[in-house]
């Protein structure tokens, strides 16, 4: 009996000691203190160690693109960490190419600041700003898609290229205790520098889309930063093919406004995919573009057109309509926006129609 009690006391003592050691380790060993981050061998600042590099940069008003909101699922928040990054983490490997690895490129949302760092960031990202805005207008485009107009209220103006995106910040709200940011393409004209339009679809359990669709109202204040992205209208006279489904309409709408504002006269076809007639939107605008842009054609396509709808347009996937309308010839550009499967199938169709790989531009979202 005494032996059993002694054994229990020894085990309890060992367990208590280990717990104490772990507590001390977390308190002292994991306390990285203040650390210095130096950017492009020029700008530097002090941060509290232990946080991710991405969040540390945001705290110092340096905004890297991060479509997933820093969750490690988009691979956009890359930067070169020349010193202090530590070993590459398993969570980064699927997003880093061989060239990335050779050039010390890492995912800033995965790397924690545990030592002083020397990092390299594209100069244009150092000019990205955060904007304070008010929701000037919300409009239900369909039962699941809203258009937001965000009027900038802090005296700034936004300069962007048609096709680029911003990161929208949602504050904590019931069901979401933390701030959340996600990427959304700008849907408005670059000529309008005092506001931006966004087209946002509702995704069940999506933290930011739930905030927009269930909690955000006209008159509310909101923050966004940007612009980001290298998906934008190129300076070219070749025929242009535009392809989008659902909320992928956003950057294409901005591109069409850019063509209208600059009086760009190019043969242009916009293939837009939806499920049913109720999922089509902004048709009046598309009619306006067809009138104002002499060589522009809008081709909506329904994948699930009900027989009773008396739909007389194209049916099937957007790629079906493309195969019908596009002949096989070289010397054209394509701009695509949609989900990964849609982009992949569309690129395949375009290549079959003799589009060059380097003339196919796309904005792929989850």
Automatic annotation (TrEMBL):
InterPro entries assigned: 2Fe-2S_ferredoxin-like_sf (IPR036010), 2Fe-2S_ferredoxin-type (IPR001041), Beta-grasp_dom_sf (IPR012675), Cbr1-like_FAD-bd_dom (IPR008333), FAD-bd_FR_type (IPR017927), Flavoprot_Pyr_Nucl_cyt_Rdtase (IPR001709), FNR_nucleotide-bd (IPR039261), OxRdtase_FAD/NAD-bd (IPR001433)
MF terms (GO), sorted A to Z: iron-sulfur cluster binding; oxidoreductase activity
Domain 2Fe-2S ferredoxin-type: from-to ranges: 35-125
Keywords noted in UniProt: FAD, Flavoprotein, Iron, Transport
Signal peptide (UniProt feature, chain positions): none
Source species, domain of life: Bacteria
Domain FAD-binding FR-type: 128-234
CDD domains referenced in this protein's UniProt entry, alphabetically: fer2 (cd00207), phenol_2-monooxygenase_like (cd06211)
PANTHER family xrefs: NA(+)-TRANSLOCATING NADH-QUINONE REDUCTASE SUBUNIT, NAD(P)H-FLAVIN REDUCTASE
Stated name of the protein: Oxidoreductase FAD/NAD(P)-binding domain protein
Organism: Alkaliphilus metalliredigens (strain QYMF)
